[in-house]
Amino acid sequence: MDDQELIDQAIAVRDQAYCVYSGFRVGAALLDDEGNVHVGCNVENASYPQGSCAETGAIAAMVAAGSRKIVAIAVAGGSEKLTSCTPCGGCRQRIREFAEDDARIIVIDDDDDWRTYTMGELLPSSFHLDADF
How many angstroms separate the CA atoms of 104 and 73, rounded? Predict the structure, then answer.
């Protein structure tokens, strides 16, 4: 799967977001090491801290499918049009749990250009335990 296909899936699932409070939709599509794609969207809650991020949903879908390694993840966010949306700090740590430093994180900027970061760039010197999967 190429990056554009992953991006397209993140954009598509973004439309399913439940964001009645902020109006800010986010979709995430991740590629695991078996070549499978797992998607998630943000789900808000009236008790704001109880909502969940799109990346969290995609990671949960991956784990539920039996996978444990993220190769790449595309994140698409915005209210009307697509805008820059790098993973929040909590999601960076969640992604890191299943990704190596060279895993690709693909986001869009305000000029509608996709930018690719590595996990190491977004979360340098990260806290990580070596878990046997």
Answer: 6
- What ranges do the domains of the chain cover? 3-122
Annotated catalytic residues are 55
Q: Helix axis angle, 89-98 relative to 54-64, nearest 10°? A: 20
Residues 104, 53: Cα–Cα separation, whole Å: 18
Asked whether the whole model's pTM tops 0.90, one would answer: yes
* Residue in the block written with tokens 């439309």: 15
| Residue 20: pLDDT band with limits 50, 70, 90 | very high
Convert the pLDDT of each residue in 85-118 to its tens digit: 999 999 999 999 999 999 999 997 666 678 999 9
Starting at the earlier edge strand, list the strands of the sheet with 25-32. Answer: 37-41, 25-32, 70-78, 99-108, 114-118
Annotation: CATH topology of 3-122: Cytidine Deaminase; domain 2 (3.40.140)
